[in-house]
Specification:
It is built from twelve helices and twelve strands. It has about 425 residues and is an alpha/beta fold. Helix 10 crosses helix 12. The chain is globular and about 65 Å long. The mean pLDDT is about 95. The structure holds pyridoxal-5'-phosphate (PLP).
Length: about 425
């Protein structure tokens, strides 16, 4: 049987198959460039593991206090090598990206301090952490204030506003690399480098944190090599490689990491405590797979952009634009298209492919969200997934795919669903 028939037997009509194949064909050179970055990052991770002498003894289980957990300690050393930082905190006790970011923020600020974002409002869930959205236990309740300025209309940094925004009380500057659920572009490591240099010229001693979610291993370098004091992310995104069952990381200066550890465990305990339980092997293996998985997901995002871009939908980034994370945003201006798209992606899932997603209220988010996610790890967005808040301008965010061909199948199935729901016409696929 040939591929077209196999896709056919899985519900993909010939028009959808041909349309997606033609777009894929045009992306060969682009994919080759991505594979170079993958290769480079694979070697970066491998050499870090070798230099840290990761051994079989690092993979065993520890319990209780987790004193002398060499697997945990060495994993943190490996992360520090990969991110070129002094130290790292990598724990399965960190339950998600928001928790990692909150731990870094609470640990590295004191009452009376101000946190400043030069790149607009941060990701939705951080608004509750900061107290922008009223919430019990926020940084605001502890006397830590927050201010921000937006990017300029053309997406560049508003240096004048940034200079004004940094004051005597500014102790921490937070820079979100990825776009999150916003309309701005994702920052490149080079842009982050320029931004950090400017911030330091205004206030040299300020602590600079980068929310690195979804950006890991997409470029040859990380923001920690561009002057950030710490980079923070989730292990059920890129660096967990789809294998880590839970967790987060904070890689940075010794001081920043210790401050964060004081918050995660307790002052005095710091990084010495925290059993890895049975997770070490999964966290090592996940990091080892991460460059490959990030590259697969990135290719899927580019295919999506090529397919929907050619159909006339607004795609960000566009198919030929440079990318700095694994997210692709398609703006539909219509809630029906958002729902249909997500239902198509769900039909492509490995687990729960028969479930029909519906928009629902979600903790930490202000609007109803529809999520397509059929994952081995619950909520893992490095696995094939799509989601979008049900609000103007009705944008869906597509990400993940542990293998490229799964991601490709997700792209095809989303298009198939739009076709079946009558939201696009067969003639558009000619
Ligand atoms: C995913 C994400 C987070 C954290 O989200 P969690 O769901 O808590 O892991 C924070 N910032 C950005 C930009 C993200 O993409």
């Amino acid at each position: 049987m040939d591929l077209k028939n196999i896709y056919g037997s899985m519900g993909i009509s010939p028009e959808v198959y041909d349309y997606c194949e033609a777009r894929e064909e045009s992306l060969r050179e682009r994919f080759r460039q991505i594979d170079r970055i993958f290769e480079l990052n694979q070697l970066k991770v491998l050499s870090a593991m070798q230099e840290s002498k990761v051994s079989e003894a690092c993979l065993v289980e520890t319990t209780g206090y987790g004193y002398n957990d060499i697997g945990r300690d060495r994993l943190e050393e490996v992360y520090a090598r990969v991110f070129r930082t002094e130290d790292a905190l990598v724990r399965s006790q960190i339950v998600c990206g928001t928790h990692a970011l909150a731990t870094a923020l609470f640990g590295n600020t004191r009452p009376g301090d101000e946190i400043f974002s030069p790149v607009g409002l941060p990701y939705d869930t951080l608004l509750s952490v900061l107290g922008v959205n009223e919430s019990q236990g926020s940084l605001k309740e502890y006397g830590v204030s927050f201010s921000y300025c937006d990017l300029r209309e053309d997406g560049s940094f508003d240096y004048e506003a940034i200079r004004k925004g940094i004051n005597d009380r500014t102790a921490l500057v937070t820079i979100q690399r990825s776009r999150g659920y916003s309309q701005r572009h994702t920052l490149s490591v080079e842009e982050i480098r320029e931004l950090i240099a400017f911030v330091r010229s205004v206030k040299p001693e300020v602590t600079i944190m980068v929310d690195n979610c979804y950006g890991e291993f997409i470029e040859a370098t990380e923001p920690s090599e561009a002057g950030a004091d710490m980079v923070v992310g989730s292990l059920i995104k890129n660096p967990g490689g789809g294998i880590a069952p839970v967790g987060g990381y904070i890689a940075g200066t010794e001081k920043c990491v210790k401050n964060a550890a004081a918050r995660l465990t307790a002052p005095g305990l710091y990084k010495e405590l925290g059993p890895s339980l049975g997770n070490n092997r999964l966290l090592y293996q996940g990091l080892f797979m991460a460059p490959s998985v990030a590259a697969s997901a990135e290719k899927g995002a580019i295919l999506l952009s090529a397919v929907y871009g050619d159909l006339g939908f607004e795609c960000a980034p566009g198919p030929s634009e440079e990318r700095h994370d694994i997210i692709e945003a398609v703006t539909f201006h219509d809630p029906e298209l958002v729902k249909s798209f997500c239902r198509g992606v769900q039909r492509a899932a490995s687990v729960d492919s028969f479930i029909r997603p519906e928009p629902t209220p979600t903790p930490g988010y202000a609007h109803d969200i529809i999520m397509a996610a059929g994952c081995f790890i619950s909520g893992s967005s490095i696995e094939l997934s799509a989601d979008g808040p049900l609000r103007e301008p009705y944008t869906v965010y597509f990400q993940g795919g542990l293998t490229y061909y799964h991601s490709k199948f997700g792209v095809m199935m989303s298009l198939q669903q739009l076709l079946e729901d009558g939201l696009i016409k067969k003639e558009q696929l000619l």
